[in-house]
Every structure is written in C-alpha cells, then in structure tokens.
Amino acid sequence: MQRDTQKKVNSPYRPALTCFLFCAFGIALAKIFAADSHTVVLVSVFLVILFCILAFSFRSRFEVLSRISAIIAISSFGFLLFSSEEYHFENSELNRATTIYSGDAIIFGKVLSSPGISSSSASFYLETDSVFVDSLVIYSKEKIFVNISGVEKAKENFLLQIGQEVKLFADLDHIEEKKNPYEISYDIALKEKEGIRARAYLHSPFDLYIINSSQDLAITQKSIQFFQTLFDKAKRIISNSIDDSLTKGFVSAVVLGDKSGLTAQTLDDFQRSGLTHLLVVSGFNVSIVAVLVFYLLRLTGLSFRRLRIGLSMLAVLFYCLVVGLEPSVVRALIVIEFIFFARLLERKPDIGNLTAAAALVTILLRPYDLFDIGFQLSYGAVFSLVFLYPTFEKLFISENIREGKSLHLRWAHSSLQGFFGSLAVFLGLLPVFLYHFHRLSVIGLAINILGIPLAAIITILGFLLLPISFLSGWLASVYGEGSLWITKTITSIAHFSGSFEWSVVQLPRPQTILIVFYFAVLFYIIRADKRSNFFGRSILAASVALILLLAKVPFASSLVRSPDKISLLFFDVGQGDAMLLRAPNNKTYLVDFGGITKSYSAIADRTLLPFFKAEGITEINGGFITHMHIDHYGGTVSVLQNLHCDALYTSGEQTQGYAAYRLDSISQALHIPVIRVHQGDALLVDKDLHIYILNPESTTNEVTQPLSSEGMNHHSLALKVTYKNSSALLLGDIEAADEERLVNRYGNFLHCDIVKVAHHGSRTSSSQAFIKAAKPKFAVISVGKNNSFGHPTPEVIKQWIRSGASVLRTDKEGAMIFQSDGSNFQKVEWR
User: Fold this and answer.
1) Are 194 and 126 contacting, i.e. CB atoms less than 8 angstroms apart?
2) Which of the residues 18, 370, 653, 748 has the least number of beta carbons within 10 Å of its own beta carbon?
3) Does the N-terminal peptide bond of residue 696 adopt cis geometry, omega within 30 degrees of 0?
4) Alpha carbon distance, N-terminus to C-terminus of the chain
5) SS percent in the chain: helix, strand, coil, step 5
C-alpha cells in the first residue's frame, strides 16, 4: 500500500498530456499519408464517433478496452483535424482555379493587414470578393497574399490601410509545395500559418486602385490594427531611446520578438553559440513580464492579492497580443494564465499538465503548428524541464545542498540548477535542433548559464523602458543606454563562443526512427532511481548505439548517399542550372551553382545550402562552372563561403562585373585552384565512374578577353557522366551548331539515359541530329517558371517527346533525383 502511494506521488496523473500525445500522433499520421480527400475526412469522423461510443460503453466492465478505444478516438480526432484542414485548402475555389489558370487577373477585395514595406516592395493580406482570371469568375471570400514591386516610386502616396476595398491588376499564382529537398517553403508557411489560398504579384503600386477608402472593419480587424499600432509604437520608443544599433536590435528582439534590427552575422553568432532562443519572445520572456508586473503591483501598495493576480493576467494577455501570437507566445500565455488562475483558486498547479493542456489547445486550433519549429522548441523546452530535470536534481544535487541555508550552499544550489536545467533542455531539444538546423552547438550548454540571466535583465530593462518613455523622453534615453553594456557583453559572449570551429558540429538530418529510439533511450535512463543505475543505463545505451554505428545502421536520412549507386540531383533554381553528382565513395561534384535574385542574393542560399546541411555534406570535391553567365555561376561564392571545395573547373572564360570579381577574390583567398578543362579531358571520380569533357574544343591560347553572350554559350562546358553501363549528358548552354559538331566527333558515344537539355530548351538548341544520337530515356529541362525568354520552346519539347524521351521540367516537377546501380538511371521520389 505504501509503495502504491509513493508511485502516485512520483507519477502525477496528467490527462492533458495523454490527450496531447495521441492527438499529435494522429495529426502526424495524417501529414505522413497526405490525407486530404473527402473520403478520408468522412472515415475519420466515423472512427471518432465509433471509438468514443466504444470507450463510453466499455468504461465500467472492460477498462483496458475502454482506454484503448479512447486512445484510438483521440488519435482519429487528430487525424481528422489535419485532414479537414488539407481538404478545405485543396478544395478552395481559388486554389483549384490558380492551379489551372495562373496568370493575369483582376481582383476585388478588402485589405486585411497593414502593408509591410521594405526598400522596394510591399506586402499585405487581402480577402477576395471576386476574382476574374481568363474567362473564369470566382466569387468567394478567401485570403490571399499580395506582393507589390516598385513601391519606392510611389513613396508617400502609398497609404493603404486595413479595411479599404481595392481593385488589383495582378499575376495570380497558386501555393506551391517545396521545390527542392529540405528547402524552406515560404508558400507552405503562408498556407499553414495564415490560411493563404493563393498569391498575387503586382509589378507596380499603380496597378492597385482604392475603390472605397472608408475603413469598414470587423471587431477582430480593429483589434489587429490596434495591437499593430501599439507594436509599431513600442518599436519607435526603443529606437528613439537607444542610439547603439546593436543594442536597439537586441532589445527589440527580446522584448518584441522583432529580429529585423539584427545583422546576419549577429544571428549566426547566436545560432552557433546555442543562444538563438533568446532572440524570440517565448515562455522565458513572458514569464519574466508576468513576475515583473505582479511584483510592481505589489510595490504600488495594492494589498488585495486576487486583484493583483487578475491585473497581472490582463497585463500578460495584453503583452502577448502586442508581440503577436506565435506558437511559443501562445504556449506561454496559456500556461501562465492557468498558473495565475490556479493561484486565484489557491491550488497548486501541475506545470507538466498545464503545458500539455496549452499544447493541446494550440494544435486543436491550429493543427499545422505541431510542425512549426517555434512550437517544438517552446513546448519541448518546458517538457524537458518538467520530465528530465527532476531526475537530475534527485540524483546529482544532494539534500544538503538543496536545503542549505548558508550563502555558499545557496549559490551552489543555484549554479547546479542552472547547469542541470540547461542539460535537460539540451537533451530534450537535441533531435529538434538536428532535424531543423542540422548542426549541434557544443558550447551552448555552458554559454546558456551565462546568457540566460543577462537576457532576463535586458528583458526587464526593455519592458520597463516602455512606461518610462511616457514620463520623460530624456529619462528613457538615459535608461535605454543602461542596457548597452549588458547587450555588448552577451553579444560578445555569443560571438566569441561561436567563433571556434569546434563550437558547432555539422550533422545530417536524423531519421525518424532514430528520433524515436533516442527518446525511448532517454526515457529509459531517466527512470533510474539511483545514481549507479543512471550511469549503468547510460553506459548500456551508449554501447548499443556504438554497436549499431559499427554495424553501419543508417541513422541519418539521406536522399543521395548509397554504397553502390550514383545519384544525380537536378535542383530547381529557377531560370538557371545547378546539378549535384554523388558517387558511391561519397565524393561530391556540382555542375553549376544557380543564379541570383533581383535583390542580388544567391538562389543557392535557399536551395543548395539547406540540402548540403541536411545531408551532412561539408565539402565538395569539385565544382564545374559551365560558362560565365550569371544564372550558372551566380551562387558559386555563396557555396564556397559555406563549403570546402577542392577545385573549380571552367572552360577558361573571362567576364566582367561584380559577381565575377567576387568569385575571383574568394577563390584566391581560399586557395581554391581554378582548373581549365576542354574537349578530351576526363576525371576518374570513383571505380567505374568518369566525367568526360566534350566541349569546348581544345585551343592553344588562353581565353583572356570577355566573350560575347553567344560566344559564352558556344564555349560552355558539356560533360558526360558514365557509371558502368549508365550515363548522363550535362550540356550547359551549348547550341545546335555545337551539338552537331559533337555528333560528328562522338557519334554513338552520345547515347545516354539522361540529357540535361542544352540552354534551358531554347530554340537554338536540341538539333534533330543530336536528339537522334543521344536517345535518352529522360530529357531534363532546367528552367524558371514564366521566364521572360520563353524557355522552353514548344518546338523543342515536341522534338524530345517524338524521340521517345520522358520530358521533365524543373518549373513543373521541382527538383529531380536520379540514381543508377550501373545498369540505368531511375527517377527517385523525394517528397
């Protein structure tokens, strides 16, 4: 009897946790199976009702069956939540229409948000009233995302406000899935976080007409506008009160969650040092504000405790509405409000159950949040403290230290609490960091012990800065500068700790089975009741992991790694080229690097680099720049800055411009040899794996002068990759005359499984003689969607189809992966 009582004390009943776990399981299952059909929704409804009835029927006589039925009902309900969200999106009128009729459209609707204006563009949300596209008219109230270019031309005349009715002449487009493996899709983020059904692009603010300037606002819209105004005002107060740009940006980040004032270098320093969580408003910040408000009310002499609690609850709610209801903020808000409410009723709350209840409420309202990194980090940190920390405290902090009254024992207790709290969060969030960021901060555990108290002080200073500014602008300025040295200290710590190469370990994305195995082992270890058992279980777990590692069990997921196959990946980089070759011996080569955006950022930053990080690829053995057109070499500098490269191979072309200058500078600074290759050269990559250079022709003189655009195309590298009996032709931008010369020289050697169609399918490529000689199974066209060149031309597509090739386009298919065991290439699905 005594043993049962002890068990109940150590293992509190947490029904919210059970409901959350199985509801989340159902949501995850629905995402895995891409459940979005009407039939799936109906079946889910049927299962929920059926197992609810069974659970109720069995509750008195068959308790085990009743619990199993309840678990299935909860999981089915989670499955229903996600599948119904997907069903409503797939069957929205705008989504279905834009999938078929994307293009010029006339849109009537109401503005739902204040425009976010950058240097050259603006964006906002619009509720449609009617949409005219081609001959189709859609009357539906659906939310779309609008982006407007050229806003700098309108200047102060661009005064769009919430609630105004507008008419747009826009390019309407549908929400796209991920186009590249591991790529962060902003379209999907808009769909899942904001409920967006389509996107609209305006080339100029003069394509927007306000047809009703009166602001007809609903209560929710008025509330959004009110809190947005407060948010903007708080940003101005911080900006006006603090002169130092770094301090200004850091205070805005920890108080308001606005990281726009921080440089990319600062953000990278915090990520490398494991302090990224300090730059977002989360439970840490909200709890500090809650405690601060409660004790400030106490200092004012307000003696009625329940009134202080009630006012504190309102203050926390108000603060969360101002900073925005991100998943981490929602979690903190619900948990803290529950704690205050329990205190109001004079009950001791169970933090684990309250956190699980908050998580359950969050995914019931927004099922997509389960896959949001903010949700996972926020709730994962609290669950880690609730479930892991008590074991560390019980086993490694002696009772003498826990109950000590002297100053040195209290200091020791606080220090140990900080260390083991950081350790608990580190262990609990390790799979999340590896899955999303693909790297591990080795030094983060120790740095958090210093960083968290400093961030708490800055949060308090920044929060108090807002009311002080209403008293005196001068006082606010003096007070704001008080956070300067603390900010300098914490940013210096982040920069110093993140500057060491060993401070961050790059690791590939773990497989789902490894994550399950990890949490199972962690649960097994923390169940230990003695220190000796804890170490014994840890050694046993480490031994099992080592055995599996020696047995070469693939813990890390990979799309291109294989011991007996080569992989060829065609990235979708828009109007440009980028291909990756991965050999069985894990050697990696890139053929072209993609281009740049209109804002001069490398497309490789969001397409190639996330792939390399997720796959754990830290170096490339060679990079081929087929020719010096920006859509082929524009991303080279970005790749070289992030990956070690053994050598660059070019045709020897020279060109002018800033991008070419940067490429020359970085290759020299990093001592990367630039090797000129031409027709007749070959590289042995692995046993039976060769890369042959087919173009350009061998010349005796170095190409020292810039070539014309057409001359660059003729001088482009053309490669043939052969692995045993399989092969692929990668043709750069060579043209029909070059192809015919290759036919005359190589004949049947051009026969292959895959052709990367030359020059993006331009009419100046793909001659009949070449197509006949190549006879590929797949013809891959790397091309940008709705590009201004008209690539690929209908004539070229028809010619390849008539040859019997399966024509695949990156603008339609997204990235494509092919693998060969030496007999032939097969297309591999990666989504």
Assistant:
1) no
2) 748
3) yes
4) 54
5) 55, 15, 30
Q: With helix as H, strand as E and coil as C, how does 569-606 read? A: EECCCCCCCCEEEECCCCCEEEECCCCECCCCCEHHHC
Do 385 and 427 touch, CB atoms closer than 8 A? no
In contact, 677 and 693? CB cutoff 8 Å: yes
The whole-angstrom separation of Cα 27 and Cα 818 is 31
Tokens of 349: 């709350």
Separation of alpha carbons 522 and 77, rounded Å: 29
Q: What would the 3-class secondary structure string for 690-751 be?
A: EEEEEECCCCCCCCCCCCCHHHHHHCCCEEEEEECCEEEEECCCCCHHHHHHHHHHHHHHHC
Closest CA relative to residue 330, chosen from 344, 320, 318 = 320
Which of 716, 684, 682, 677 has its CA nearest to residue 698? 677
CB 407 within 8 A of CB 456: no
Is residue 542 pLDDT above 60, yes or no?
yes
Coil, helix or strand at residue 202 = strand
CA–CA separation, 266 and 243 (whole Å): 18
Q: How many CB atoms lie within 10 A of CB 545?
A: 16
CA-based nearest residue to 635, from 668, 591, 594, 580: 594
Q: How do strand 622-624 and strand 439-441 relate by DSSP bridges?
A: unpaired
Q: What is the pLDDT of residues 2-47, one digit of tens each?
A: 444 444 445 567 888 899 999 999 999 998 888 778 888 899 999 9
Q: Which residues pair with 570 in a beta bridge?
A: 579, 816
Could you tell me which residues are beta bridge partners of residue 623?
A: 590, 648
pLDDT digits (tens, 9 = 90+) for 655-700: 777 778 888 888 889 999 999 999 989 999 988 999 999 998 875 4
- Region 360-374: what's the mean pLDDT? 88
Q: How confident is the model at residue 203 (pLDDT cuts 50, 70, 90)?
A: confident
Q: Would you tell me how many other CB atoms lie within 10 Å of the CB of residue 478? A: 12
Cβ-based neighbours of 65, under 8 Å, separated by 6 or more: 54, 58
d(CA 717, CA 553) in angstroms, rounded, equals: 39
What's the rounded Cα separation, in Å, for the pair 36 and 24?
17
- Which backbone phi and psi does 84 adopt, to 5 degrees? -70, -35
Task: Name the helix (H) or strand (E) containing 624.
Answer: strand 622-624
Contact criterion met (CB below 8 Å) for 171 and 105: yes
Q: How far apart are CA 611 and CA 143, in angstroms?
A: 31
Q: Is residue 280 packed enough to be buried (19+ CB in 10 Å), middle (13-18) or exposed (0-12)?
A: buried
Other C-beta atoms lying within 10 Å of the C-beta of residue 115: 19
Other residues' Cβ atoms within 10 Å of the Cβ of residue 368: 21
Q: Which residue has the tokens 């949501």?
A: 27
Contact 486, 451 (CB under 8 A): no
Q: What is the DSSP string of 459-486?
A: HHHHHHHHHHHHH-HHHHHHHHHTTHHH
**How far is residue 496's CA from residue 513's CA, in Å, rounded to a whole number?**
36
| Geometric angle at alpha carbon 10, from 6 and 12, rounded to 5° | 115
Q: Do residues 231 and 113 make contact, with C-beta atoms less than 8 angstroms apart?
A: no
pTM: 0.80
User: Token pair for residue 729?
Assistant: 């032709």
Phi, psi angle pair for 697, to nearest 5°: -65, 155
What lies within 8 Å, CB to CB, of 829 at 6+ separation is: none
Measured in whole angstroms, the distance separating CA 332 from the mean position of its chain's CA atoms is 22
CB 658 within 8 A of CB 667: no
* Residue 276 buriedness (CB in 10 A; 0-12 / 13-18 / 19+): buried
Q: 327: pLDDT confidence band, cut at 50, 70 and 90? A: low
E strands, 2-142, where? 103-111, 116-117, 121-133, 136-138
Report the distance separating Cα 498 and Cα 684, nearest Å: 38
CB 760 within 8 A of CB 578: no
